[in-house]
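The authors assume throughout that readers already know how a fold can be written as discrete tokens. In essence, backbone conformation is discretised, so a fold becomes a row of integers matching the chain in length. A single example would do more here than another paragraph of explanation. For illustration, here is how one protein appears when written out as sequence plus structure tokens:

…
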Amino acid sequence: MVDTGRQHRPAAGIAFMLFAVFGFSVMDAIVKWMGETHPVPLTMVMRAMFGILPILAATLLLNPKGQRLKALHPGPSFKPHLIRGLLILLAQVTFFTGIVLVPLAEGIALVFAAPLFVTGLSILLLGEKVGPRRWVAIGIGAVGVAVITQPSGGILAPGSLLVLAAAFFYAATMVTARVYAVGSSAMAMTLWASLVAGLGGLIALPFVWQGMPDGADMGLYMIMGVVGGCAALAMTQAFRIAEASLLAPMDYTALAWATLFGWWFWQEVPDPLVWIGVALVAVSGLYILERERRVAPMTE
């Protein structure tokens, strides 16, 4: 049965998704650049501070005057926002630290392991059944991850472990969205989770304080936060108007941007093994997504 309350605009959904991936790629490059000279908690605070500006602007523009505060209300319970915020905090700490230690394209490639973790966490937390085909896909993806990490010293290298941990925590935020039924809007979920993560960075900041960034660095931080916030809104809109199975392949365009930015700013050229590993992870992730799409109607 077709959901008549939901828009189906594939072309617009792809456009929003491509913009979102580009925006997150810009943000990741700035995170790596700033992480070479500034502490991680400062980057977390700036990400939250500037990242909420697009959310607030969208709330003002898209909601009637009397509905604006309601649109940002956390809902009947703050617990889901707190849990998601803590998971985002952990994802930021591990990713912001790890991406400085590995080439940009390699780090982004490792984040593509998130769907593998989503499947594993869904088994543990949701009791979902996973058939032998998806287990094979998970195994292929794991091999791909191991191949990706070879140029930087293997899967046990500090940078690789940190970025993989970030992928795990990112996957956990997606699974918790399915565990908890949050009676609040997507904007409210993004806002409150971002504020929780930013507060964590603010608490840690005095222990690593190195002074205020100069004007140029503040400008980069502003771009990082605003572009990241716009990307989050664009991704939310993309999934509202197009199917996940259509949008998922667009996520892999991030590797093209990461390769370009890595070459431009750090003269990094991905090892051929990285591309082989990405192909394995991509095939695995897309197969898992397609199997979940086919199985879902049978279990509803």
